[in-house]
Specification:
mainly alpha, two-stranded antiparallel sheet, 8 helices, 2 strands, 61% helix
Length: 212
């Protein structure tokens, strides 16, 4: 077996899965947080009104579940794709989802998407933490990680070139199998001379017997 470097078709678009793995994994976690926290937050007294676990409203669906699910999808594309275009699509999906976390509440009224309620907090500091954890801070962090992933994917590094031209094992040519038969090669005429010397008298005897 020998090794050779193979230039794959479309090699410029090929990347290692580790290229966007870290950003993709973090974005999956953030997307899951954004989509699930409005339903499980009431268990920990960390919620917006209505303060009931697993209470579905149109506002929660449009402004929290939708961008959270989009972030998870984009993170999965970044985490598992070996194609640069597909991974960049995942990055842009996460950036847009993060932007929707930030500006969605301001557009919900004019678009008729519903309301997510008000922070369930006694003190102002908790209200600020809820706003950041549910919307503004979460969206900004998603935008940042998505932009970092896009920046990394937009540059073709030396590692990408090495991955596209990685050595692969060449297919060995089939060799004929050795035969079990053994062929003995003797010099021409040697066998006849040897046989004539040993059977010289035996031959004449047989000849005499044949004439009797």
């Amino acid at each position: 077996m020998t090794e050779t470097r193979v230039h794959h078709r479309g090699g410029r678009m090929q990347i290692a899965r580790s290229r966007g793995a870290a950003s993709g994994f973090l974005l999956i976690l953030l997307g899951a947080w954004g989509a699930l926290i409005p339903f499980v937050g009431p268990y920990f007294d960390f919620a917006f009104s209505p303060d009931r676990a697993w209470a579905w409203t149109a506002g929660r669906g449009w402004l929290e579940v939708l961008p959270g699910a989009a972030t998870v999808l984009g993170g999965l594309l970044l985490l598992g794709s070996r194609n640069r275009a597909t991974a960049m699509l995942g990055g842009w999906i996460t950036v847009l989802a993060g932007a929707w976390f930030v500006v969605g509440r301001a557009l919900a009224g004019p678009l008729g998407l519903g309301d997510v309620g008000t922070p369930v907090a006694v003190v102002e500091s908790k209200s600020v933490v809820l706003e950041l954890s549910y919307f503004y801070g979460l969206g900004a962090l998603i935008i940042f990680l998505g932009a970092v992933a896009l920046g990394r994917l937009s540059v073709r590094s030396v590692r990408d070139v090495e991955f596209a031209q990685r050595p692969v094992a060449a297919v060995a040519q089939p060799q004929p199998e050795p035969s079990d038969e053994v062929t003995e090669i003797q010099p021409t005429g040697a066998g006849h001379a040897h046989r004539g010397w040993r059977n010289m008298f035996r031959g004449s005897g047989d000849h005499r017997l044949a004439h009797r």
